[in-house]
Amino acid sequence: MNADTKRPKRQRRTKHNLTLQDYMTKHSPLKAGLKVTDEDENLEDVNQITRRIYLGNVQSAKSKKFFEDKKITAVLNCTKDIPNTFSKKDVEYMRIPVDDSLKERDFELMYKYMPVICEFIHKHADIQKNNILVHCAMGRERSAIAVAAYFVCKHRMTPHDACKYVMDKRPEAFWYGKSVNFDQALNRYYKDIKKRT
């Protein structure tokens, strides 16, 4: 067989008879442009959680229109690498450099940051009465747990009630309730608060 008549290379197939590439496109958030399920077709970049707290994704974090319309003056950036887009303007940023890796070190890091997260949100939303955006890449895990931690700390909610409240306001939080990646950090933080009160 010469080079011109070579058989096309066979693609590996999964158990569902899809090529591996098709499978990855269908099931990987990154390969699929962050669209994972049909529910995601109506994914909002940001949702209002309380009068002054907004929970969003990377798109909301770089939207000048959103910042101007909602008068955002503080941002809790729950990522290691997404830029603080408006840091040269009158916007105060705090970065929580945690990965959503499901690794123990990230659970531990999120737990350690929870008191600081709560104070930052409380300072801007409750004391200064300013509007704050809490975001991560997709607005589903890190930023959602940060807002839940605030409710646990400042509003004395249980972890379950805090997560449910966040999901009521942003349905795609915690992957539509299917996965709370940092639940052990939140439960531990809740126990710390209970010991102090």
CATH overall fold name: Protein-Tyrosine Phosphatase, Chain A
* Sheet with the most strands, sense and barrel status: 5 strands, mixed
Widest sheet: strand order?
1-2-5-3-4
* Uncertain stretches of 5 or more adjacent residues: 3-42
Which series of helices and strands comes N to C? HEEHHEEHEHHHH
List the domain count as a whole number: 1
Helical content (DSSP H or I, runs of 4+)? 40-55%
* Structural class based on helices, strands and sheet pairing: alpha/beta
Structural account:
With 197 residues, the chain is an alpha/beta fold. The protein has a single domain (43-196), classed as Protein-Tyrosine Phosphatase, Chain A (Alpha-Beta Complex), CATH 3.90.190.10. It has helices at residues 20-27, 58-61, 64-69, 104-127, 142-154, 159-169, 174-177, 183-196; strands spanning 46-48, 53-56, 72-77, 92-95, 131-135. It has a 5-stranded mixed β-sheet with strand order 1-2-5-3-4. A hairpin with a 4-residue loop joins strand 1 (46-48) and strand 2 (53-56). The radius of gyration is 20 Å and the shape is globular. The N and C termini lie far apart (80 Å). Residues 3-42 have low confidence and may be disordered.
How are the SSEs placed, and which strands pair?
Layout: H1 20-27, E1 46-48, E2 53-56, H2 58-61, H3 64-69, E3 72-77, E4 92-95, H4 104-127, E5 131-135, H5 142-154, H6 159-169, H7 174-177, H8 183-196
Helix pairs in contact: 4-5, 4-8, 5-6, 5-8
Brief summary:
With 197 residues, this protein is an alpha/beta fold. Helices cover 43% and strands 11% of the residues.
